[in-house]
Each structure stands twice: as C-alpha cells, then as structure tokens.
Specification:
about 230 residues; alpha/beta; Rossmann fold; DNA polymerase, domain 1; 2 domains; six-stranded parallel beta sheet; 10 helices; 6 strands; about 10% strand; globular
C-alpha cells in the first residue's frame, strides 16, 4: 500500500458484522413458534431498510440506533402482518443485533492489521452494541467511535471530520474501510482515503444494493485477508 495512512477506520454494521444472518435467524425462530413460513430474508431486509432510514444523517437525535431498531421492528411487524409477536419475542429479535457474528475473515485480519496500524470501529451502531459484539467475536479495537458519541450520524460530513479530530489526524491520514459506497463517498469528500471491501452476502440472497465500488476508491478488495496484506502484514 503506497498511500501514507496512520490509521484505519472501519464501518461495522455490515462491513464487519453479518447482520442479515443473525437477525433473519431470530425471525425464523420466533416465526416457527407460530407455525409461520414467510420469506424471512425479505422481512429482515425490510427491517434493515426501515432502521437505516431512521438513523442515517441524524443530527443530535434524542435516540440511538438501538431505539431505532425497536421502533423499526414494530413497524415491519405491522407491514408483514406479524402483530401477534409478543414483547418477549420482539425482544429476542431486537437482541439479535447485540449477538451478531463477525464475517469469518475479519477477526484474524484485524489482529494482523493492528500489528502495524491502529484500527478503529467508526459506526452508526450504539456503543453498547459494539461492545457486545466485539466481546462475542474477540475483536480487539484500538478505539470505538460511535456516531452516538459524536451526536452526528454518517454520512453527515461533520461525523467524519469529528472522528479525524478525535484521532488527532488529518482526514487524509485515515483509511476508511466499508462495503457501502454512501459511507465511502462521504468519507472521501472529507479527505479520507477509502477502501471498498466486497460483502456479497450482506443482504442475504437478495444481494447488496450497491455491490460495485465507486471508481474513486483507493483500494478494492474481496476480503480482509487481502486488505491486511495490502497494509503490509
């Protein structure tokens, strides 16, 4: 990697965590108790879209993404005629976010990357969720920067600029790593270097909404082992 960077910041929700499998499994388990056979993949993706709509770009909201996951769950259950799910079942689905598995290629690559450069989770997810999934998956970050802490959510430019400020670095000294063009495009506009990591199964069988990296990405890789090698480990 020829670019001069001092740290890597990682989107976490879909880039690091397999949210679709974890949340879809929770829907399937609850649905089985009611003897239901729906397209749980579609239900899960509708849930994700509602949640993202509720949090992206927010400025000083009186809620975090946990709150949005709760309200979006109630909405998607109504949309799909699943109002009979009781409070305990709704909590089981909501809590699945705090139990997500990381993509298999990430934990070892993270450890390798940290031998050379700081690695930071930079995410719209709430801090408590990142702590839970990091402990579950043995993810040892140098720092966690949640937009909840900043009070401004990606892709608002101030979120990226504040993160760089907190790290004591110029944006150009940071490599933003994500599988979403909207995140990388916003980071690049603020001066960050950008790396697109393909996650073809992020949205389950449906596939991701933007699978092709923007041509201005500095790095495009198929997985985290490849990224670690480019970092020089």
């Amino acid at each position: 990697m020829n670019m001069q960077v001092k740290a890597l910041t990682f989107d976490t929700g879909g880039t690091i965590l397999d949210w679709h499998s974890g949340v879809c499994s929770a829907f399937q388990k609850v649905g089985a108790r009611h003897d239901m056979s729906l397209d749980w993949h579609a239900v899960t993706n509708d849930y994700r879209r509602l949640a993202m709509k509720g949090i992206v770009g927010q400025v000083q909201p009186a809620f975090n993404m946990d709150d949005v996951h709760r309200t979006a769950l109630d909405e998607v259950l109504v949309q799909h005629g699943l109002q009979q799910f009781d409070a305990a079942e709704r909590w089981q689905i909501f809590h699945a976010w705090h139990q997500l598995a990381a993509w298999p290629d990430f934990p070892a690559a993270l450890a390798r990357i940290r031998q050379k450069l700081p690695a930071i989770s930079f995410t719209m997810l709430p801090l408590s969720l990142v702590l839970d999934v990091s402990r579950k998956n043995d993810l040892d970050w140098d720092a966690v920067i949640s937009c909840e802490m900043i009070g401004i959510y990606k892709p608002n430019p101030q979120a990226y600029l504040r993160a760089a400020q907190w790290l004591g670095m110029e944006p150009s000294e940071i490599l933003m790593v994500a599988c979403h063009n909207f995140d990388l495009n916003a980071a690049r506009a603020c001066g960050f270097k950008t790396a697109f990591v393909r996650r073809p199964f992020e949205w389950g069988p449906e596939g991701p909404p933007d699978p092709k990296p923007h041509p201005d990405c500095d790095i495009v890789v198929d997985g985290f082992d490849e990224l670690a090698k480019l970092v020089g480990i």
